[in-house]
Amino acid sequence: MTYNYNVKKQIIMQTTKERTHVADLIESADNIAIVCNAKGSDAVSAGIAFAHYIKQEMHKSPDLIYLGEFNDINSDLFDLYPISKDFQPKVLKVTLDYSGTNIEKVNYEKLENSKLVLEIKPVSRDFDMDRIDYNMEGIEYDLIITIGAQSLNQLKPIYAENKAEFDNAVIINIDNSDKNESYGKINIVDPSVDSISELMFKNFAAWNYTPKGKAAQSLLISFS
Fold first, then answer.
1. What DSSP state is assigned to residue 193?
2. Are residues 14 and 123 in the same domain?
3. pTM over 0.85
4. What domain range is 148 assigned to?
5. Selection from 131, 132, 124 nearest residue 101 by Cα
6. What are the backbone dihedrals phi and psi of residue 15, each rounded to the nearest 5 degrees, phi first?
7. Average pLDDT of the segment spanning 93-108
8. What is the mean pLDDT of the chain?
9. In sequence order, what are the beta bridge partners of 109?
């Protein structure tokens, strides 16, 4: 009896620690992305449920990305949370210090080789090119939650195109594969469950969170 009590106590302590750690990461994040691997409705249902958990418990709205074909998803899921195919695009801003010039016109031209030409005139022959600057603006995700990916390389092309952002972000890895590489800061991986949605529901129960509203609807769609 003592052994069983200690095991149960250890499991409760571990679950509480995991829930606190996940909550702390979410609370400290400015921008959150949930990236669902191409595993159909199961991955998306789990992702939507987790997104609503974050909204309800931490009052933040993560971006939800699905890397598979939208036709593979139960159409009812689109009514439960916005689903995208990629990270939010960024904006390239070009700044020109035109003080002391007589600039009157700015034109642009798209060339056949996918190049964009800006034509600014008139400028003097000795115009200082150091007066031209550029920068990228937009969301930088500092917390990325992956759903159903054994490795980051499975998340192509989004991982290949945003590798630096993945490298700089904290990653929570959620999966039910025994081949998962445990690449996250937190790895919620359990090969004993049949689906990722079941894993999500199991963890919600351990965290004393009862899915409600659209979070519950999302999981029910997966189980039906």
1. S
2. no
3. no
4. 2-88+140-223
5. 124
6. -65, -45
7. 86
8. 88
9. 117
Q: Are residues 98 and 149 in the same domain?
A: no
CATH of the domain at 206: 3.90.1640.10
Bridge partner list, 33: 63, 144
Q: Which two tokens stand for residue 84?
A: 């995208």
Contact 82, 36 (CB under 8 A): no
CA proximity to 30, closest of 52, 66, 65, 62: 62
pLDDT at 35: 98
Which parts of the chain fold into alpha helices (H)?
2-28, 40-58, 158-161, 163-168, 196-206, 214-223
Q: Do 110 and 39 fall within a single domain?
A: no
Q: What is the layout of strands, in order, in the sheet containing 32-36?
A: 63-66, 32-36, 143-147, 170-175, 186-189
For residues 163 and 180, state if they share a domain.
yes
Domain count, the chain: 2
The one-letter amino acid at 185: K
